[in-house]
Structure formats: C-alpha cells, structure tokens
Amino acid sequence: MKYDSLYYPYPSRRSAVYAKNGMVATSQPLAAQAGLEILKKGGNAIDAAIATAAALTVVEPTSNGIGGDAFALVWSEGRLHGLNASGPAPQSLSVAVLNKEGVREIPKYGFIPVTVPGAPAAWAELSAKFGKLPLTEVLRPAILYAENGYPLTPVLGSNWARAFRTYSQYLKGNEFKSWFETFAPNGRAPGIGEIWRSPAHARTLQSIAETKAESFYRGELAEKIDQFSKEYGGYLRAEDLAAFQAEWVNPIRVNYRGYDVWEIPPNGHGLVALMALNILKDFEFTERDTVDTYHKQIEAIKLAYADGKTFIADPRHMSVRVEDLLSDAYAEERRSLIGQEALEPLPGRPLQGGTVYLCTADGEGNMVSLIQSNYMGFGSGLVVPGTGIALHNRGHNFTLDPAHDNCLEPGKKPYHTIIPGFLTRGDQPVGPFGVMGGFMQPQGHVQVIMNTIDFHLNPQAALDAPRWQWIEGKTVELEHSVPAHIAEALARQGHHVKWAVGSGGFGRGQIIWRDEHGVLVGGTEPRTDGSIAAW
Fold first, then answer.
1. What is the pTM of this model?
2. 449 assigned to some structural domain
3. What is the pLDDT of residues 462-498, one digit of tens each?
4. CA-CA distance, 196 to 150, in Å (whole number)?
5. Does 486 fall in a domain?
6. Host domain of residue 104
7. Total domains in the fold of the chain
8. Among this protein's residues, is 26 annotated catalytic?
9. Contacts of residue 406, Cβ cutoff 8 Å, sequence gap at least 6
C-alpha cells in the first residue's frame, strides 16, 4: 500500500501509528490497552480482539454489551475466516402474536425487539478456534475494569448523558428499573472523569470466562435471563439461548481496482458496501474533493441501499442470491442509472440464480476485524438484574410485512447493521477496517476504501477526511468540513443537502494495514475517544 504524503484533504488530526510486533485500534483507550496487555502476555491477535471486545462492554457500554451481537473476520493460517454471532428471534415471537397484542410495528425498547445475544458465543468460539491463552486470562482486564471502575472519557460521557435523558423519558415500567440501577446508580448519568464500576458485570464476565460462555447459554446466566423475561411477559426463553450457536461463514467480496474488499454475508449489510463499490469501480476518480466524486459515491450508495433494504435478511429467507446482486452485469445495469441529477432510489430486479468496532494484528501475521453492538446505544433498556447484562434490541430491524424477505419469524435472524471489513491483495492480507454506526456503516466502508485505494491516503488521513451520509430519498447530510462549494454544487444537481450538527452520526472507524515489509500502520477515529495501542 502506497500513500501520497503530499495529498491530505484536510490537516490530519493525528498521525498514523506504525509498529512491528502488534497493534490494537478501537474507540476507547482502556480497551485498546487491554488488548495490548494480552498481546504482551503471549496472546495472539485473536486473544487481543476478545480482550478488547470484552473490555468495551465495560468501558463503552453506551454502544455495546454482553447482551449484544458480534461479527468477525479473522485472517489466520493463510486465509480469511468469517464468524456470524448474531442471534435469532425467540421461538415464541411471531407476527401473529404481535398482531393479537395490537402491535403494528416493532418498538425500540422493551422485550419485543430482544433477540438471542451472540457476543459471548463469539468470544468463546474465537478463543476455541484460534486463541492461544485461556479465556479466563483473556477476559481478566475487562473483569478488573468492571470491579475497580474507570473514569469516563469525553465522548463516552456525552453519549451516556444523552442516553440517560432519552431513557428517563421513555422507559417507565418496572422492567427497566435495573437499567437505571446499573447505569445511573446516583439517579443520573456518571459525568466525564467520574468513576463508574459494575461488580455484577465483573461476576458475569468471570462466569463466561470460566465456563467458556456455557453459563450464558445453558447455565446460571441463562436461567436469570429466562426468569427476568418470564417475569415481565418477555419472549426470550432458556430454550432459545440453549439452541444458539455462533456460525462460521464464508466471507463475500468484490475486486476493487486490484484489491479484494471482504464483508460478512447476510444477514449483515456489508453486501451494501460491496454493491456500491461494484458500481463505482468502472468510474474514473482522479480527485477526492470534487462534486463528481461526491455525487457518484452518493448515487451508488443509494442504489445499493435500495436493493439492500429490499433483499437483505436471514440468508435462509432471501428471495435473491448474493452472487446475483454482486455480479458485474447487475453492477453495470445499476451504474447506467447514474447521471448528472440526483436519483430517487428504487430497488432493481437482479437475475435469479449505538456499536463498537476494533481491529488487531500481531507479529505472527494474524489479523482480526471485529464488531459488536447492543444497537441504538444501550439497546432495549433492559438489564438482567444482578448481572450487568444489557439486552440488545436488534429485532427492531424486522418488518411485520409478511411479503418482505425480512419479516419477523420465530428463529429467524434480522437484517443486521454491524459489519466488519477486511482488505486483501492477491493472496496476501492488507488488513482489517471498519466504520461503526448503524446505517452509516456501508457508507463509511465505501468512503474509507476509496480514500485508501483511489486517493492514496494513509489510515489516519482516510479516517480524518470529511464524510457524507445518505439519509433517504434525495437527502444527504454533510459534515461541516465538506467544502461549501461542493455542497452548493450537489444541491444544484438535485440533492437535498443538510449540514450535520456535530459528527456523531458519521460513524467511528479503525484501520490497521500491514505493508510488504510486515510493518503495521494504523489509524483511529477522530470523532470519538479513539486510541491505538502498539508495540
């Protein structure tokens, strides 16, 4: 990977980090240090990723938790492996059940959107297949953070306060009492720099470590989740937990200008990023900051999302094949729709045939791209009493339309927004990348990949660069660092341009590339408390 050191769209907020022996990049400094600690103890990149992921449930609970889902791409033993640890809807939950209860759309909070959590299974599966150190040692840094407490960082503190205001307004039932006891123990959100601790969280992590997550799915923790759900009329049961297994899957890819860009297949929407890149690959892009570049990127994402929102679902229920959506012929058909005016996006007809992100690398050649989430910040607003387990609300992405591929069914996985990315060239790894943030994620993937490959930006500059986000229809939101003349030109082409308030909605990314000499170079997100730990 070669970088044009003379070209930066805007001054970099920090320098890219270079190292040889190992690297951990994530959105919270303490979690990055947890991963580095495991590397220095003799663990590999997979152990470091698990340690970092577990620590993030403690030191960034505003975005993920033990009760969430996870996906991973792992480069090890000379090839790329994919892990889907997203859980399905409970067996007792269906459209018919909700219709009978008068529910016409899936709410954000409470038990209805709760699906089986997959994150603990992801840690155990990754450890069993690739890890070098016992899970009890790998989860130890996270356990200590939960036991002893830690001071809140600035972005974390701001997000926590915002979540507290929202939950105070909407969470009124007794089932939500444990959330406030856990995350607002003094009747308010902890402030920036204030120490927060969760002994119950520590005990739960210890149990997961000692049993290799068996207690969560078939033991004492499963019993507590089941009891809590039954007490308040929820749908998740011990039987749903016991039946769950994380799934090893074959990653999907497109070739973009000589590089293979890899994503997890559906039910995740990494497919959207790949479809957009497939559309864009036959255009010429000579400069980053031109209206032509912005316009074509936005139009490609709109077309890809129109298909993604129509067809992406649990792969057992999709009406089209992934390979058809990623075919060159279909990309050409969609590319031909892009002209000088902004489109109202519509799905095509292919031929039939609130998240954390982290990446790690070690000196042995292993690399990991891992993402986990509770969705919409803290998730459902439900915390299993006495455990620190905040249950996610990923089922909110289901539709209740029986004709839709992503319609709710018992045992079915929902459309999922969290996606890890990976880049290779030939048969060699370049490295992991990701940009978390709901429906921004494929858009962030496209932008950082093009910043890297088309515009030769190093990882930090690729993340620092201004971002845009398509919202719906012809509406696109721009960061204030986007040049004003580009915004004005986009408006003349029919885009409904909005300037964003802050940068919170534009995703939070991490990148680690390995060059031809084995040197690691990393970038971390300037829009959060991002950190790289390296040695």
1. 0.94
2. no
3. 999 999 999 999 999 999 999 999 999 999 999 999 9
4. 6
5. no
6. 22-248+356-397
7. 1
8. no
9. 312, 313, 314, 317, 397, 398, 399, 414, 415
